[in-house]
Structures are given as C-alpha cells and as structure tokens.
C-alpha cells in the first residue's frame, strides 16, 4: 500500500466524480451532526473539530476542504448546522474566525494524511494537536481585530489578549487534546482494519 494515500483512496483506489461527491456530501453532514453534540459546562465543547479532523485525515486535503466549504455553505444558506443550532448569522459572530478556519483545518489534516504522517496513532495524534492549535490563529484573529476592521461593532470585538485567552482558548485546550487522541484512535484503527482487509 502506498505511503502517500488516504483511507478513502486505500478503500477505493479508482476515484470517480460521483464517489467523490458522495464522500464530500457525507462528510459535510457528519460535521453538521457532530456540531450539535456538546459535552460539558459551563463552556460546552462540541464534537465538530473531531469530525473535521477525521474528515481531513480520511478524505485528503482537497476533498476534506471541499466538504467543509459545503458545510459552511449549508450555514450560509440558513440551515442550523453550526454549533448550538446556529446558521449563517454566526459568520458575523464571535466564532466566525473558527468557522472559516475549519476549511484550513480539514485541508491540513488531509495534507498530513496524504504524506503518510497521519496513519499510526502517535503521528496522527501529534498532527491533530498541531492542526487544532493552528485553528486558533483565525479563531483569535477575528475577535482581536479582523471583525473590527470589517466594521462589526459588538462587545466581543477588540478584546484584550487576556480576555481572548480566557474566553476563546483556555476553556477548549483540554477538549482539543482529548479530541486529538480520539481522532488518532479512530484513524489508526481505520488503517489497522484496512491492512487486515487487504
């Protein structure tokens, strides 16, 4: 089996446009469902980013990014697919940077998979941790300044670094680590099944 492949390519070596379409739509629906599953209080953590990591690791960079663009399109069209049943209104809310960053997150996970980095447990876990950390770049940039530069006026725009840390980063770090481990277990388990099968 080639080292530079994804799970879907390993399962279906000959790709077709129809199969790609089904995989992309299915992956976008998986993310929409995972976004509605929240765990914990007072700041609930959804399974959305876990699903995004799995989508990218399984489908590869381009198909993973396409699935997330389709997912964002559902929300832009008014469907309540984002966390807590939100829709396109979230594109001007405090988490808009994370939403946009989801496309890059799926692409990065797919890139790691295509290079054989995300196949075993440890490689996948490390890749998932790094990719999850990179999601904070657009996620934090949005409330710290991008939203204000775009003319959005709200109480969360232009917050100080310590308030951004307390509200947008710190509550999610443990959840990100747990989701990275879960993604690694699922992906490495998937590869084990594929190896046994073939």
Automatic annotation (TrEMBL):
Q: Cite a GO CC annotation.
A: plasma membrane
Q: Where does this protein chiefly localize?
A: membrane
Domain of life assignment: Bacteria
Localization per Swiss-Prot or TrEMBL:
Cell membrane
Report the Gene3D superfamilies cross-referenced here.
1.10.1760.20
InterPro entries according to UniProt? BioY
What keywords are assigned to this protein?
Answer: Cell membrane, Membrane, Transmembrane, Transmembrane helix, Transport
How this chain sits in the membrane, per its record, is: Multi-pass membrane protein
Under Gene Ontology molecular function, one entry of this record is: biotin transmembrane transporter activity
Q: Where are the transmembrane segments?
A: 21-39, 45-61, 66-83, 89-109, 121-144, 164-194
Q: Name one Pfam family in it.
A: BioY
The similarity comment for this entry is: Belongs to the BioY family.
Protein name, please?
A: Biotin transporter
């Amino acid at each position: 089996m080639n080292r530079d492949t994804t799970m879907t390519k390993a399962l279906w070596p000959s790709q077709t446009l129809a199969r790609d379409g089904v995989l992309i739509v299915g992956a976008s629906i998986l993310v929409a469902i995972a976004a509605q599953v929240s765990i914990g209080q007072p700041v609930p953590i959804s399974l959305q980013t876990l699903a995004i990591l799995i989508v990218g690791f399984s489908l590869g960079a381009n198909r993973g990014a396409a699935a997330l663009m389709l997912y964002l399109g559902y929300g832009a069209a008014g469907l309540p697919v984002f966390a807590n049943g939100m829709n396109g209104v979230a594109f001007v809310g405090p988490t808009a940077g994370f939403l946009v960053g989801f496309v890059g997150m799926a692409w990065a996970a797919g890139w790691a998979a295509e290079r054989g980095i995300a196949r075993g447990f440890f490689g996948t876990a490390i890749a998932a941790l790094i990719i999850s950390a990179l999601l904070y770049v657009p996620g934090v940039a949005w409330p710290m300044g991008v939203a204000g530069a775009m003319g959005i006026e709200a109480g969360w725009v232009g917050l100080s670094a310590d308030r951004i840390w307390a509200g947008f980063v710190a509550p999610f770090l443990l959840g990100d680590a747990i989701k990275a481990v879960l993604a690694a277990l699922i992906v490495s388990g998937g590869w084990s099944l594929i190896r046994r099968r073939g």
